[in-house]
Amino acid sequence: MGNIGQTVMNLLDQTAFSSLYWGNYVMILVACIFLYLAIAKGFEPLLLVPISFGMLLVNIYPPIIQEGGLLWYFYKLDEWAILPSLIFMGVGAMTDFGPLIANPKSFLMGAAAQLGIYVAYFLAMLLGFSGPAAAAISIIGGADGPTSIFLASKLGQTALLGPIAVAAYSYMSLVPLIQPPVMKLCTTEKERKIKMGQLRPVSKLEKILFPVVITIVVCMILPSVTPLVGMLMLGNLFRESGVVRQLTETASNAMMYMVVILLGTSVGATTSAEAFLQADTLKIVGLGLVAFAFGTFGGVMLGKLMCKLSGGKINPLIGSAGVSAVPMAARVSQKVGAEYDPTNFLLMHAMGPNVAGVIGTAVAAGTFMAVFGVK
After folding, report:
1. Which of 113, 330, 98 is nearest to 198 (CA)?
2. How many Cα atoms occupy the beta-carbon half-sphere of 169 within 13 Å?
3. Is 156 exposed, middle or buried (0-12, 13-18, 19+ CB in 10 A)?
4. Taking burial as the number of CB atoms within 10 A of a residue's CB, which of 47, 105, 157, 357 is the most buried?
């Protein structure tokens, strides 16, 4: 009987129950809530399902993210900025840059929506974060997970990479909840009902030249963001050239989804209770929300200005799409506009600021890297 009792005790010691503490159970509950939002509510399940499941795994079995563990290898690809760059290639291959080319003024709204980044940067400095840490945190305001991971790695903020990445991807997933209240607060019903004229046709030559010209201009000025901007434009060149259909399909489908699995689960796995349940994490999550709200505010307010200057031809709602979450933010612009006029179609117009926001967030990251001397 003694041997049986000892065997039972050994088996119990090997269960997760013997090594977990209350914080792990809190994070397991958070992971289950995220899974519910992704599966039952449809909040960007492609992002939220792998992130929340990685969160679940690491809080049941913490060694999975430690050196030699399965997700440690995935995480190193984040740390080396490989997965974020590949995500950008997939985004470029999936996205039509035509609306931005047809309406170059969209660049202004994309730039204005970066307001949240700079507001969050100065607030983070006031809260006691170092300059590089504040810069890495502030990029959450661009609602761009890959760029957040890229900048945190380049600035040496790997200790904060987990909370930053989770906050960025969580806010990307929650765009349909966070943006509409800010958009409605900043606009009148009359402005929300504005119908915009049809965009001009964009030639194939323009679509081919655009990624080449943007790569040359942006990467010559800020060479440190070449991995992101270069891969974004390469993916788009695959799409628009029309001569590499197989590469376009691979970049926008098989490769993209594989990278999302690796990146999502590894990001989720950085949220072990010991690392995540800290005061700095709460500050980062709060700063991310502030940054995202101010980014939406900046884009919409410039949209209002452009509306007045154009004599009421621009719907300010499309400015909110400048926060870079492609194409989620553009869909939200369309959804809010359709609430007030079901015949109003803003999606293609909103894609201009949306694409501009992706480029703008990468430029903001490159600016911070230049400021702190990172190449």
Report:
1. 98
2. 31
3. middle
4. 357
Question: Interhelix angle for 82-94 vs 70-79, to 10°?
Answer: 70
Q: Estimate to the nearest angstrom the gap between the alpha carbon of 246 and the chain centroid.
A: 27
Residue 231 near residue 88 (C-beta atoms within 8 A): yes
91-139: pLDDT as tens digits:
999 999 999 999 999 999 999 999 999 999 999 999 999 999 999 999 9
**What would the pLDDT profile of 193-248 be if each residue is shown by its tens digit?**
999 989 999 999 999 999 999 999 999 999 999 999 999 999 999 999 999 999 99
3-state secondary structure 320-373: HHHHCCCCHHHHHHHHHHHHHCCCCCCHHHHHHHHHHHHHHHHHHHHHHHHHCC
H helix runs in 222-276, sequence order: 226-241, 245-249, 255-268, 273-276
CA angle 166, 272, 154 (to 5 degrees): 50
Q: What are the structure tokens assigned to 29, written together?
A: 């509950």
Round to whole Å and give the CA distance between 290 and 140. 10
> How far apart are alpha carbons 194 and 269 in whole angstroms?
44
Q: How many CB atoms lie within 10 A of CB 22?
A: 9
Calpha distance 276→280 (Å, rounded): 9
The pTM score is: 0.89
Enter the tokens of residue 298.
């900046």
pLDDT digits (tens, 9 = 90+) for 249-262: 999 999 999 999 99
Instruction: Write the single-letter amino acid at 82.
Output: I
Judge whether 81 and 150 are in contact, CB under 8 Å.
Answer: yes
Q: Which of 88, 129, 76 is nearest to 326 (CA)?
A: 88
User: Distance between CA atoms of 269 and 279, rounded to whole angstroms?
Assistant: 19
